[in-house]
Every structure is written in C-alpha cells, then in structure tokens.
Design brief:
By secondary structure, the protein is of the alpha+beta class. The protein has a single domain, classed as Gcn5-related N-acetyltransferase (GNAT) (Aminopeptidase, 3-Layer(aba) Sandwich), CATH 3.40.630.30. It has seven helices and seven strands; from the N terminus they run βαααββααβαβαββ. The chain has a seven-stranded mixed β-sheet with strand order 1-2-3-4-5-7-6, sandwiched between helices. Strand 4, helix 6 and strand 5 form a beta-alpha-beta unit. The longest helix is centred in the N-terminal third of the chain and has 19 residues. It is globular and about 50 Å long.
C-alpha cells in the first residue's frame, strides 16, 4: 500500500458496519479485549457487535474516521464531551450486556471505570479506539488515521490523550508526540495499560 494513496475521511452512518468490522479484526488479539473476553472464539464472534455499539455511540460527535479502503478506523471524543454520559451511555451499557455474558460484561465495565478514574481533568481530544486490519498493519496506516485530529490539535492548541495497551502501539504514539504519564494494570492479573498525553506542537 503506497502511503501517497491513503485517504482518511470522517465516517458516516453508512460506514458503521465497515468501522465495526475492521475494529473487530484489529482487536481480536488486543490484551485488554482478550482480558475482557478470554475465550478467543467468543471474542471473534462478539467483537463485531461490541464495536458496532462503539461506532454508533461515537458517530454523532463527528470525530470517527475510516480509511478509504476500510482497512483502518479511529474513534475520538471531542474536548468537553463524554459519549458515555446520560442516556446514550446507558443504552450502550445495555447493548453490551445483551452481547456479552455477565462475567464479560463486568470485565468490560471494570475497564471503563478504571480508565475513567485515571482520565485527566484537563480538556483534551480523547482517542477511544484506533485499529488497523491485521493484513494492513506496519504500513503506516495508523499514522494516517491519527493525522487529521493531531493536525487540528496543533492548529488549535489542543492536547490529546489515549490509553495504549501494547508496546508497539505505545511506540507509534510516542513517534507522534505522546508521552507516557502513567501506567495502570487491570485486575485479576490483567495486562498493563499506558496512559499517554500529547501537548500540541507549536510551529
């Protein structure tokens, strides 16, 4: 894949299936989702519905992006916005409970609560999810998916924040100006997660 041909555009409602599909493939072996849904076959079967719920929750905030070939997607929350607040968040929780069994749902809830507890108080663009299909990884697509929002962050002087669950992802984010500001570990011998913050670049 030539980097010069990559297009990344805001997702629309018709793109929800494509966003959910690529994120499900990208996160099949993610440590956090593997901890939340330990059985790999159940994880493979359930993740498309999980990410459909995520995509539909985030889409109204107009910061969801999809690559032109459908090989990658990113879900951001704007500053001062928590997509999980109020009725949308309650509806999301019910959808997840319908998709997952009780233990899986409780683990997903525990992840969300832990992330929320450590979320910085300072307003920032928040990267909830970014994923690239396994057969398109290590080709620069992740950088292209980050580019639109990070460029706007630099233009407007806005910080950005995310959680990284793998060493490779942490390195990617470091290359784009994120610094590690903390580390948390999921309970019950869960994996580590790095908390990362990016100050805007001033030209």
């Amino acid at each position: 894949m030539s980097q010069t041909t990559v297009t990344v555009t805001p997702a629309t409602p018709v793109d929800v299936p494509a966003v959910a599909s690529v994120l499900a493939r990208a996160f099949q072996h993610d440590p956090v989702f593997a901890w939340s849904i330990p059985d790999p076959d159940r994880r493979r079967a359930r993740l498309p519905a999980v990410f459909t719920a995520f995509a539909e929750l985030y889409l109204p905030h107009e910061e969801t992006y999809l690559s032109g070939d459908g090989a990658g997607a990113a879900l951001w929350a704007p500053t001062h916005v928590d997509p999980f607040d109020g009725e949308p968040g309650e509806a999301f929780g019910k959808r997840i409970a319908d998709v997952l069994d009780d233990e899986e749902s409780q683990r997903c809830l525990a992840v969300g609560e832990l992330f929320s507890e450590h979320h910085p108080a300072q307003p920032s663009m928040y990267l909830q999810l970014i994923g690239v299909a396994p057969d398109h990884q290590r080709r620069g697509l992740g950088s292209h998916l980050l580019a639109p929002v990070l460029a706007r962050c630099d233009a407007t002087g806005t910080p950005a924040y995310l959680e990284a669950a793998t060493v490779d992802n942490r390195r990617l984010y470091q290359r784009h100006g994120f610094d590690t500001i903390g580390e948390i570990t999921l309970p019950e011998n869960g994996p580590p997660v790095w908390l990362m913050w990016r100050e805007p670049t001033v030209s």
